[in-house]
Amino acid sequence: MEMTLSLARKLIEIGKEKATQDFGRPICIAIGDSSGELLTFDRMEGSPVRSIQISQQKAYTAIRMGIPTDIFLRRLKEDGLEISYYCDSKLTALPGGHPLKNKSGQVIGCVGISGLAASEDHAITEYIAGLIAEESL
């Protein structure tokens, strides 16, 4: 499986549906390519304006660091590091960003969600990452 615009748009719809179904609140969702650059984005009506940039930076961070953003946050805390040490102003350690790996483990893209509680954002990105890993779309 490879990331295409068609697949990215499908993931956007899956994420929005999951947010509505499980949490009853709107989100911003960003899907990036394997370098972390934005491929497609959607902002549900009523989602916070601040979540536009946050969702995109969560996706970017996940792919650039190669790990979900909740793990990045944990590592920063455990190692006593400041995020600024990475010299990249687009990084964020807010949970809700996830790299997307296909069944063979190849990184094909990334997803970032913002608008809910951090744990809820994370739950949706983890769900999407699982669908990609299983190639069950």
Please tell me about this protein's structure.
With 137 residues, this protein is α+β, with helices and mostly antiparallel strands. The protein has one domain: Beta-Lactamase, CATH 3.30.450. The chain is built from four helices and four strands. It has helices at residues 5-23, 50-65, 69-79, 118-134, and strands at 28-32, 38-43, 97-101, 107-114. The chain has a four-stranded antiparallel beta sheet. β1 (28-32) and β2 form a beta hairpin. α1 packs across α4 (118-134). It is globular and about 40 Å long. The N and C termini lie close together (10 Å). InterPro entries: GlcG_carb_metab_protein, PduO/GlcC-like, PduO/GlcC-like_sf. It holds the Pfam family HbpS-like.
Cα-atom radius of gyration: 14 Å
**Overall geometry:** globular
**Through-space gap between termini:** 10 Å
Q: So how many helices?
A: 4
Q: What is the percent of helical residues? A: 40-55%
CATH fold category name: Beta-Lactamase
Under CATH, the homologous superfamily reads Haem-degrading domain
Average residue-wise pLDDT:
96
H-E order: HEEHHEEH
Assembly form of the protein: single chain
Strand order within the widest beta sheet: 2-1-4-3
What is the CATH class? Alpha Beta
Strand content: 15-25%
CATH architecture: 2-Layer Sandwich
Low-confidence stretches: none
For the biggest sheet, the summary is: 4 strands, antiparallel
- Helix and strand content put the structural class at alpha+beta
Please report the total strand number as a whole number: 4
What's the number of structural domains? 1
